[in-house]
Amino acid sequence: MTLLFFLFGFLLSTTISNVAAKDFCIADLKGGLTPGGYPCKSLQSVTVDDFVFSNFTVGTPNQLKMSFTPAFVEQLSALNGLGFSLARVELEEGGVVPIHTHVDATEVTIPTGGNFTIGFISSDNVVYMKTISEGNIFVIPKGLLHFGLNVGKGKHSAIYVFSSEHRSLQVVDLALFGSNLDSNIVAKTTFLDIEQIKKLKTLFKGSG
Ligand SMILES: *[C@@H]1O[C@H](CO)[C@@H](O)[C@H](O)[C@H]1NC(C)=O
Ligand SMILES: *[C@@H]1O[C@H](CO)[C@@H](O)[C@H](O)[C@H]1NC(C)=O
After folding, report:
1. Using CA positions, which residue lies closest to atom 3 of ligand 2?
2. Which terminus, N or C, of the chain has the lesser number of Cβ atoms within 10 Å?
3. Has domain 50-168 been given CATH number 3.10.50.40?
4. Which run of H or E residues covers position 55?
């Protein structure tokens, strides 16, 4: 009888810890981000709050008239290892999303209000562009340059899903005009006028 209890208890405890360990890997943010994600928090320190992000609200708009609230693994540690993340975006009337790319993530746009013109440019330079509103979903394949404009009256809002727990972001204007790449090299390699480059370097706080 004692042996049975012992065996049952042993089976139960190993089952519980194994199942839990395989079910999720809550990010230990202090462990640092590696190419394989964050290390897992110990199961003893996991609570229900690791699965909840309570601040998925609209924040204050930036210079681009855009509020961007990420729900990446840094905000929602349960996303660690799950291969996706989210963001909530609101764009004031006339606001734009400058041309940019996420080399590590496909993006899904789910508009929840307003009229939004969104598009991407394929690697063979074909433009795929459409004005979308609530009820539409638009997919931007991984790594392609894309952009958006609020073309409606009033605010445009959307939920974004990315196929990465913390998607990377490279904005073309910032790479060219917000960096310290020498203006003469920017002019030669983009075929733009040097005066225009100097203007944009000032605007995007670049140097060189
Ligand atoms: C919630 O988000 C806003 C901006 O998006 C930020 O200012 C605030 O500190 C956040 N609150 C918490 C509890 O994280
Ligand atoms: C969006 O476009 C439709 C069709 O042109 C129009 O009826 C609607 O008023 C527009 N909505 C906004 C918020 O601009």
Report:
1. 115
2. N
3. no
4. none
